[in-house]
Specification:
The structure holds two protein chains of two kinds.
Chain A (H helix, E strand, L loop, with lengths): L8 E8 L10 H16 L8 E5 L12 H7 L6 E4 L5 H14 L5 E8 L20 H4 L5 H15 L4 H20 L12 H6 L2 E3 L2 E2 L9 E9 L11 E10 L3 H4 L9 H14 L4 H4 L2 E3 L5 H10 L8 H7 L15 H5 L3 H16 L13 E10 L2 E10 L1
Helix pairs in contact in A: 1-2, 3-14, 6-11
Chain B lengths: L2 E8 L3 E4 H8 L10 E4 L6 H13 L7 E7 L10 H8 L7 E5 L5 H14 L5 E8 L9 H4 L3 E8 L5 E10 L5 E2 L8 E2 L2 H23 L9 E4 L4 H10 L22 H10 L7 E5 L4 E9 L4 H4 L3 H7 L2 E2 L3 H7 L8 H4 L7 H6 L1 H4 L3 E5 L5 E2 L17 E5 L5 E9 L9 E8 L4 E5 L13 E12 L4 E10 L3
Helix pairs in contact in B: 2-3, 6-7
Classes of the chains: A alpha/beta, B alpha+beta.
């Protein structure tokens, strides 16, 4: 059996831009900002970087295709640059590429950078899917949007577990209210205001049953990580963050075309979590994981993640939400930085932005959001729809 | 014994009360008419409605025996690219058939019928399907806005299991210029109402009907039902009087419920008449449009098979009032509306791709695994059943006629549609198979997880810049 990635690679430098509707910044600016912070944080020189991975998804509408947008913006000296795209997990894929290359011994130091400039589309939400889902799919897929595709999971979750629309929506509202609170503590977040459960429940409907505050923002941003071999990490800093697990799971098609899936959970998340815990040697995630950044593109996504990641029992995440288990002062704080809810979701940047928070928390540098003595942090980054998706589960620790 | 083997009409879900129209555009002077008219949904047109009627008409009929499809309309979506070819694909007819579009006049429905009859009689084909359908655009404020309704009908002609034999016909061609529309125009022009009424309907219809009676040496008393088109209520009655017909002999005009559905109109009334007919009844149908055709039918014992379907009655009862006139003209694309930047983004249709995937897209074919029996859509080469995984062991499988249940759904206000919210969901098909589809002809509030749905062929998108009407299947709550 493959021995996995555990403790072979460390993150020694990270950067993350302010997220938001950055009308004055182009994607090139965002790449430079994230990179500058990462390289200063890591204390190395640009010439030390031997290979780079660039995560973007809607690159057609901002930086363009290929590795050149990164290499020519940062003036990287003819090193290999690979662009990764795996829907909303593109940034996590970039980090995975860099870590695997270092673990393989191909390079000592590698860069992963994710960026997305969403606010040049001229409208809210993600770019129109009919252009991006494939030429055959656009002839036969329904007229979907991201909130609608996840709203279908909420409809079914409510029906399956016997929640009335009010019960279901109030549970989801608590999830969003918690993240909004955390976002107020983070200067880099896009949305920084408290929102009450009542406001959330009464907000206009985007896609029934999801309202405005059940949906994450639409933002621009970038984040970057510099990774090295674990045995050379201390050369750069005393508190490198170790990679414990890097797992990806991608839909098999069963969810959309076979009648086995219940539409009340995300199968890839469950499968990916199982493998990540195995790679990291985690037996009881509810007891061993200290904190998480999970993919809360929508409140229902976060609710089902609690169950799929085996933190809460099936159908009973509501109890943990109600008890504050995932609040900043709870047993496993989730979205301590405010999550996608408050950062929005510049696709390529999101996975690395999640990791940035885990990295800062493990190093004790999270300011007013600091979690008491965290040991293991988990990032869960999901792309696509409940019926058709890619999920990453990464676990890191000191 | 040749004639109609099966027939079905289709009336769209939406109705608009004529008072709603009058309230909006009555200031321009058009006289109000009583009742309501049928209005195609935003995703319907003459092709999609023809398919809806065709699906009902064919039922479980083996497609192999059908040798032709004739489509009659005055509102064909495509001027070049045969509309009947699209309908034939949607109905999953065989490729080695004769297809033709009959256009240009509202008598095209009966003319297509007669041509189909000739084809069956001449043994060109055992069965020919005739679909007539119209979805006519009218200028706001005109009289036609009140009279024209949307609808379709389909009739299968053949020699076995005939429910009504065609006993005779009589046709008149007359370049009567009451209405016209030049190539490239979207609205009809219309001459003075009194001219159309007094020289058109009141003269031409009696001439047609008496012409046929004379030709076959019949009197009006020989007829159980007389069906003719005349959108003027008073003159409709006057024609009956002129023909010396009893009121009970005259088929109800559907003007107060559906409206004048153009090419489909006389044959829709025929479908309604057949639902109440008795064996031996003689039924006369006269179309109108630059002259007209009169068809004489005799109902057979086979009618017992279909008489109690009461399909038209069910369609008339299954309706949703379109309370907004503005929404009506937006559905018909009569006035430009702000669709936003998202709504303005329409991905191009790659015709070579559409052609390659035509069975998947237009006929809703999936595949069924020969090893494990799992139906799957779209067609797969590798079986989706995780416990099977067979490769290249598939057979074709048609989903368009399978009912299903709504596994989950949403109503989406972000995705662009002219009729928000965009409703879509996952459908689990009876017999297996799952996919996601747009859901149409429903209110969001009426949907429930687990409710039964059926498939309906619709216009998925209209790409005006490239001249493309794109079609696909949607799910809808079972209507009739």
């Amino acid at each position: 059996m493959a021995e996995g990635i555990k403790d072979k690679v460390t993150i020694v430098g990270m950067g993350c831009t302010q997220f938001g509707e950055l009308w004055d910044k182009g994607p090139e600016d965002l790449m430079v900002d994230a990179f500058k912070e990462a390289i200063e944080d890591g204390g190395m020189d640009k010439k030390d970087i031997q290979a780079a991975w660039l995560g973007t998804h809607y690159e057609e509408i901002h930086v363009g295709k290929g590795g050149m947008p990164l290499s020519t913006t940062l003036k990287l000296p003819f090193i290999p640059v690979t662009r990764t795209d795996n829907f909303c997990a593109s940034g996590s894929e970039a980090l995975r590429g860099a870590c695997y290359a270092v673990a393989a011994g191909a390079y000592d130091i590698a860069l992963a950078l994710g960026v997305e400039k969403l606010k040049d589309t001229g409208y809210g939400g993600l770019p129109e899917f009919s252009f991006t889902v494939g030429t055959k799919n656009r002839l036969i897929w329904p007229n979907i949007s991201a909130p609608g595709s996840f709203a279908m999971m909420a409809t079914k979750y409510f029906a399956q577990y016997g929640l009335s629309p009010e019960e279901g929506k109030s549970t989801l509202a608590k999830i969003s209210a918690k993240s909004h609170h955390n976002g107020t503590l983070n200067p880099k977040a896009h949305l920084r205001r408290e929102v009450t459960v009542e406001q959330i429940m009464n907000a206009p409907i985007v896609a029934w049953p999801l309202g405005l505050f059940d949906c994450c923002g639409v933002s621009d941003g970038a984040a970057a990580a510099i990774v090295t071999r674990a045995d050379m990490a201390k050369k750069f800093r005393p508190d490198p963050v170790r990679i414990k697990a890097l797992q990806i799971a991608v839909s098999s098609g069963e969810e959309l075309m076979y009648t086995g899936w219940d539409s009340a959970h995300v199968e890839s998340t469950y499968r990916c979590g199982v493998r990540a815990y195995q790679e990291a040697g985690i037996k009881d995630p509810r007891e061993e994981i200290s904190m998480m950044e999970t993919h809360d593109c929508f409140s229902i996504t976060e609710l089902t993640e609690y169950e799929d990641l085996q933190i809460s029992p099936r159908g009973r995440a509501k109890e943990d939400v109600d008890s504050g288990f995932f609040n900043l002062d709870g047993k496993i704080p989730n979205q301590p930085d405010g999550g996608l809810k408050c950062f929005g979701h510049p696709i390529g940047a999101t996975g690395l932005r999640m990791m940035y928070e885990m990295y800062k928390q493990l190093q004790g540098k999270a300011g007013p959001r600091q979690i008491n003595n965290p040991r293991l942090g988990l990032t869960h980054n999901m792309g696509g729809f409940p019926v058709y998706n890619i999920v990453s589960v990464f676990i890191v620790g000191l | 014994m040749l004639g109609i083997v099966s027939c079905a009409a289709y009336i769209p879900w939406y109705r608009i009360n004529r008072n709603t129209i009058y309230s909006a555009t009555g200031f321009l002077g058009a006289a109000p008419l009583p009742g309501e008219k049928a209005v195609a949904n935003y995703d319907e047109d003459s092709i999609s409605m023809a398919v809806a009627a065709g699906v009902d008409c064919l039922g479980g009929t083996e497609r192999e025996g059908i040798g032709g499809l004739y489509f009659a309309t005055t509102t064909q979506p495509y001027a070049v690219r045969q509309n009947s070819g699209i309908i034939a694909s949607a109905l999953d007819l065989q490729p080695d058939i004769r297809t033709a579009d009959f256009v240009g006049s509202t008598k095209s429905g009966t003319t297509a019928f007669l041509s189909a009859f000739d084809a069956v009689k001449g043994q060109v084909a055992n069965h020919v399907l005739v679909c007539a359908s119209d979805c006519r655009l009218t200028k706001p404020g005109g009289a036609l806005e009140h009279t024209y309704g949307d609808g379709a009908v389909a009739l299968l002609l053949g020699s076995d299991g005939v429910i009504a034999t065609l006993e005779g016909s009589y046709s008149v061609s007359c370049d009567f210029p009451d209405r016209w529309r030049a190539a490239g125009e979207i609205f009809e022009h219309v001459w003075e109402d009194r001219f159309i009424r007094d020289v058109g309907y009141t003269k031409i219809i009696p001439k047609l009907i008496s012409g046929l009676l004379k030709k076959y040496n019949l009197t009006i008393k020989d007829l159980a039902k007389v069906i003719y088109c005349c959108p003027y209520a008073r003159e409709h009655a006057a024609i009956a009087k002129q023909l010396e017909a009893e009121p009970s002999q005259i088929q109800e005009s559907m003007l107060a419920t559906v409206g004048d559905t153009g090419s489909a109109y006389p044959l829709m009334m025929l479908a309604a008449a057949l639902e109440e007919a008795k064996p031996g009844d003689k039924i006369l149908v006269a179309s109108y449009g630059n002259g007209g055709d009169v068809l004489l039918f005799q109902v057979t014992d086979g009618i017992d098979r279909v008489r109690d379907r009461r399909e038209i009655e069910k369609y008339l009862a299954s309706k949703k009032e379109l309370v907004s006139y503005e929404k009506y003209i937006a559905f018909r694309n009569i006035v430009p509306v702000e669709v936003g930047i998202r709504g303005g983004q329409i991905a191009s249709t790659q015709m070579s791709n559409l052609f390659r995937e035509r069975k998947t897209v237009l006929s809703l074919w999936g595949s069924k695994c020969k090893r494990c029996g799992t139906p799957q859509y779209p067609p797969q080469r590798v079986c989706v059943n995780p416990d099977c995984g067979a490769v290249d062991e598939m057979e074709d499988y048609r989903f368009s006629d399978k009912k299903g249940i709504l596994f989950t759904y949403t109503g989406d206000n972000l995705a662009f549609t002219i009729s928000p919210p965009a409703i879509y969901g996952l459908v689990d098909f009876e017999g297996g198979g799952r996919y996601w589809f747009d859901i149409t002809d429903c209110d969001l509030d009426s949907l429930k997880v687990g409710m039964p749905v059926e498939m309906t062929f619709r216009r998925k998108y209209l790409d005006e810049a490239r001249g493309i009407h794109g079609y696909f299947w949607k799910a809808m709550p079972i209507r009739v």
